[in-house]
Amino acid sequence: HDAVNGRTGLKSITTLCVFALLSGCVMPDMTLGNPLAMLSRTKTDTASPQALDAQMENGQQSDIINGLLNRRSVLGAGPYTQVANAVLAANSRAAEADLRAAKLRAEARANNWLPTLGPSVSLSSLGTVVTSLVVEQVLFDNGRKKAERDYAAADVEVAAVTLAQDTNSRVLSALELYLAAQAASARADVNAAALQKMERFEYVMSERVKGGVSSRVDLLVVQQKLNQMRSDMATDQEAAAAAMSELGAMSAAPLAGVTGLSPLTDDNVNSTPLTVLKAQAQSSRAIAEATAARAGFLPRLTAGGDVSGGGGLGLSLGAPNGFGFGTGAALRAADAQKAAASARVGQVREDANRALRALEGELVSLQRKAAQSQTLADQAAANYDIYAEQQRAGQRAVPDVVGIFETKVRTERAAVSLKYEIARVTLRIAALKGTLVNGEQI
After folding, report:
1. What is the pLDDT of residues 308-321, one digit of tens each?
2. What are the start-end ranges of the H helices in 274-397?
3. What confidence score (pLDDT) does residue 61 get?
4. Could you tell me if 145 and 138 are in contact, meaning their C-beta atoms sit under 8 angstroms apart?
5. How far is CA 249 from CA 81, 255, 259, 265, in A?
6. Are 274 and 432 in contact (CB under 8 A)?
7. Between the CA of residue 431 and those of 74, 103, 356, 424, what are the distances in Å?
8. What is the DSSP letter of 269?
9. What is this structure's pTM?
10. Which of 85, 140, 318, 395 could form an SS bridge with 390, CB 3.0 to 4.6 Å?
11. ∠ CA 104-108-114 to the nearest 5 degrees?
């Protein structure tokens, strides 16, 4: 009995070795090493702190992930970088979990060229349950196994670009909150600087009314303008506090003392937008899926047999999906899916270019408005100085001077707001290109 078991075990080992050697027919790259050693290969770096890795499970380098890793952030040293680092430190990184799952699926697919071993249970004609151990090795499958590996690799690239999009989107959201808070604070500061003069005008008018020199209606007009200025300042202060509170909720460190703007670099002027990179990866994945589906309708040659002692090695020829009246249409549908995947990349690239041109046009318009607004603010300040001098000489009434002063404050508020609008659009352009975060931070 022991001798029989020994011969059976030797036969099983021999059969497995033969199948492993035959697997070179569908192995992606024989230079990867000994096929038998590959059977027990395991990955130990799935818990690496760096989520992006250009080295794919099939031994190739991903151009898309390499491009993501080589991107440099346009954020210069200063408050922008402080905000970005704070929100990245508190990032839950849900997209990274999806990326790790995709990498594990790719690892599983990377060894799909090896033999499969599994139990077989059948009922004999005498009513006896017969169990056996069956091994199967695909020798030729019209590229289906390779397409499955390509699909898994493209799936990793899609997940990697999604992670980059999420990371850049998070930083953009944080910076937009920061800019909203800074703009509101700047407008409040303009009003705060003007309140002292407006309160002085109210005092002068109240004294003139008491002396019977001016009408009470003029005093009410000045008081209304003063109250409106106070209300606008309170609204801006509340908006700034709300934006900073929301920013604090998504940050790992307090940002209350961070102020000002940061310079931006132009190291990534020609970076491909992330939406285009994702479309390219999705196109590769769809093409691989269509290739695998098409191969399922074509003949496949496999070697297999019972290695538990009940049978021997044999060859079989067949189609996994079988043949039917709709096979021709299914093959044409697979080819059409490849064409559609390629066409979608062109459409996404066009949409991305349109979005970039729109943002660039908006940026130019804002820069023009900012220059004009600053000119108007300077003119309003000069007009106010003239009116104030004439009012002190008794040539102008206080309500006239108050009206000019109100115009001066309004133009100053518009000028400071446009400065932050320009910064916001510039950051949105960088986010569309995926250059708000360094590659290794992703």
Report:
1. 665 667 777 766 76
2. 274-295, 327-392
3. 80
4. yes
5. 17, 10, 18, 28
6. yes
7. 10, 25, 11, 11
8. T
9. 0.79
10. 395
11. 160
